[in-house]
Design goal:
Blueprint (H helix, E strand, L loop, with lengths): L1 E7 L4 E6 L2 H9 L13 E3 L27 H18 L3 E4 L2 H9 L8 E3 L3 H9 L20
Parallel strand pairs: 4-5
Antiparallel strand pairs: 1-2, 1-3
Length: about 150
């Protein structure tokens, strides 16, 4: 199997997997290679770095987040749906701001009535809650404090 970096006439880059270089050439001649983003059939191999194996004593390079390009419509739709679900869930939750760690502990240990709350906690505070066996979860999308908290 050969993986080629390909580029269309519009400059979109993508990968193509082929059984051999002859397979790539044959598929290209028959018009079977097209850009998945814009559908252009004018596709050429893009410059590629050689596949040189890493030395055994080297740590793998950290993966970088997705940058540039266009988000697939399915991903954008999924994120919009998740944001909608989070917003709906927060309607029945109370903002407690920086008091989140203390309020969560009080609920967990039976010192307060059980209620849905959300607020802020540092990474250290969140880790301490988890280590105490208190179930918490980060929100997927940032939530601004209510307007009366901003003053």
């Amino acid at each position: 199997m050969i993986v080629y970096d390909l580029s269309c006439a519009a400059g979109h880059r993508f990968e193509g997997w082929f059984g051999s270089s002859a397979d790539y050439a044959g598929q290209r001649e028959r018009g079977l290679v097209a850009c998945p983003q814009c559908g252009s059939g004018v596709v050429d191999k893009a410059p590629m770095a050689p596949a040189v194996p890493r030395k055994g004593n080297r740590q793998p390079e950290a993966k970088r987040p997705f940058t540039g390009g266009t988000m697939p419509p399915e991903a954008a739709e999924m994120l919009a749906k998740l944001a909608e679900i989070q917003a709906e869930a927060l309607k029945s939750s109370t903002w407690v701001g920086d008091a989140f760690p203390d309020r969560t502990r009080a609920i967990h240990y039976g010192e307060r009535e059980v209620e849905a709350i959300h607020g802020q906690a540092s990474a250290e505070e969140a880790l301490a809650l988890v280590e105490e066996g208190i179930a918490i979860a980060p929100l997927l999308f940032p939530v601004p404090p209510p307007p009366d908290e901003l003053n």
